[in-house]
Design brief:
By secondary structure, the protein is of the alpha+beta class. It has helices spanning 2-10, 60-68, 195-220, and strands at residues 14-20, 25-33, 45-52, 56-57, 74-77, 93-98, 100-101, 108-117, 128-134, 137-141, 152-155, 171-174, 177-178, 182-188. 20% of the residues lie in helices and 34% in strands.
Length: 224
């Protein structure tokens, strides 16, 4: 009975992940409810570790601006990201998203992060590509408190803990219930049968704009 009680308490933690807005530019919202095990995490740092597939990325320049204004805290691995690369040339991205206490819920934490969809190859039929985002892992870092060994397991994390103690701290992970197994991002894509039309229109637009620029230079330019 004691073992069952411990397992029930550990499983009391819940994580929910949502993709807000539409199109290429979205907000990733993560909510964590620690429940009974949250009593061990008082004064600790709570984070969500999620792996972004090649079809979605975080803009490091946008993230730096948000962190400068204390709007979000996150660590990207790797920290060098090609924001112009298409989906088929990109790689996975690991994100450690630091979470803030939710004032409307005891033992709850939440965080949001802007994410962006990458361009995909043109498709044969469907006008949308599906990018599957797995549920994140819940991590806690405590420099002063001792966590229950039954619920919390040591985890290797290449990121600092934002707790009171500035020295090295151990991160821990917990087994939790998932509100949703995964989130799906629908990214608009072009159709292969439209490639000829797109090329012709692009060429005409390029020639027209170049002609207008050349005409303006000849009319208003000053040549020595």
């Amino acid at each position: 009975c004691a073992i069952l009680d411990v397992q029930a308490a550990c499983q009391d933690a819940t994580v929910m992940q949502e993709l807000l807005k539409e199109g290429f530019h979205r907000d990733l919202l993560v909510k964590v409810e620690l429940g009974a095990v949250g009593e061990d995490a008082g004064g600790c740092t709570v984070a969500a570790r999620t792996r972004l597939p090649p079809g979605i990325y975080v803009d490091p320049y946008e993230l730096a601006s948000l962190q400068q204004h204390n709007l979000t805290k996150a660590v990207l691995i790797p920290d060098v990201i090609d924001v112009e690369a298409p989906e088929y040339l990109a790689t996975n991205l690991l994100v450690l998203l630091y979470m803030e206490p939710d004032p409307g819920c005891s033992g709850c934490f939440r965080a949001a992060l802007p994410v962006h969809g990458r361009y995909h190859r043109p498709a044969e039929e469907s006008e949308e590509a599906l990018v599957v985002l797995k549920s994140p892992e819940v991590l806690v870092c405590c420099c002063d408190n001792l966590l229950s060994a039954e619920c919390w397991k040591p985890a290797e994390v290449e990121a600092p803990c934002l707790g009171k103690n500035m020295g090295p701290c151990q991160w821990y992970s917990i087994t939790h219930k998932l509100a949703y197994e995964e989130s799906i991002l629908q990214v608009p894509v072009g159709l292969r049968q439209h490639s000829s039309l797109v090329c012709v229109v692009t060429l005409l637009a390029t020639v027209l704009c170049s002609s207008l620029i050349l005409a303006a230079v000849c009319k208003y330019g000053h040549f020595s």
